[in-house]
């Protein structure tokens, strides 16, 4: 739903239908907010988006993350955004948010996070998921920075660990 909204807004409905076809899905299929999209369909959609729009996976993930965090998610999950005063607080609540989401949507398989506080300006996050959507996770972290109007520097420590440096207002 979020990816469709992003593509249609920035590239047009025809491009979204091309992406759906390239992903092996019916171009007229609609995704529901309460629906859990299969990992296969989601990863196919991300790959098809990169292919059709001629973007790298990183560019696609970053665009999705920015749209999710600045436009799509605040409309649906506004209380979570309001609970956090800044990007750091928001990122630190993600594990508990995903635990609650999993209770409401038992078929969902959200990632899990572990945190290491590295002082007031740094946070190390570890991503744990069978879904292997690390690029998307990094795009979402960047989107959190944009949502809170903060500059974030993200240093990849390994495949599923990043250091987030909070650099102040954007």
CATH topology of the domain at 86-170: H-NOX domain
Described by the principal axes of the CA atoms, the overall outline is globular
Annotation field: number of helices: 8
Which superfamily, in CATH terms, is the homologous superfamily of the domain at 86-170?
H-NOX domain
Q: Please state the structural category.
A: alpha+beta
Please tell me the CATH architecture of the domain at 86-170 by its name: Alpha-Beta Complex
Which sequence of SSEs, written as H and E, runs from N to C?
HHHHHHHEEHEE
* Main CATH class of the domain at 86-170: Alpha Beta
How large a portion of the residues is in β-strands, by DSSP E?
15-25%
Q: Oligomerization state of this entry?
A: single chain
User: How many angstroms does the end-to-end distance come to?
Assistant: 28 Å
Kindly provide the radius of gyration, computed on alpha-carbon positions and rounded to a whole number of angstroms: 16 Å
Major β-sheet strand ordering: 1-2-4-3
> Could you give the count of β-strands?
4
Specify the helix fraction band: 40-55%
What does this entry look like structurally?
Helix 3 packs across helix 4. The chain has a domain at 86-170: H-NOX domain (Alpha-Beta Complex). The protein has 8 helices and 4 strands. It has helices at residues 2-11, 13-22, 39-53, 57-76, 78-83, 87-92, 94-104, 134-147, and strands at residues 112-117, 122-128, 150-158, 161-169. Strands 1-2-4-3 form a 4-stranded antiparallel β-sheet. With 170 residues, it is an alpha+beta fold. It is globular, with a radius of gyration of 16 Å.
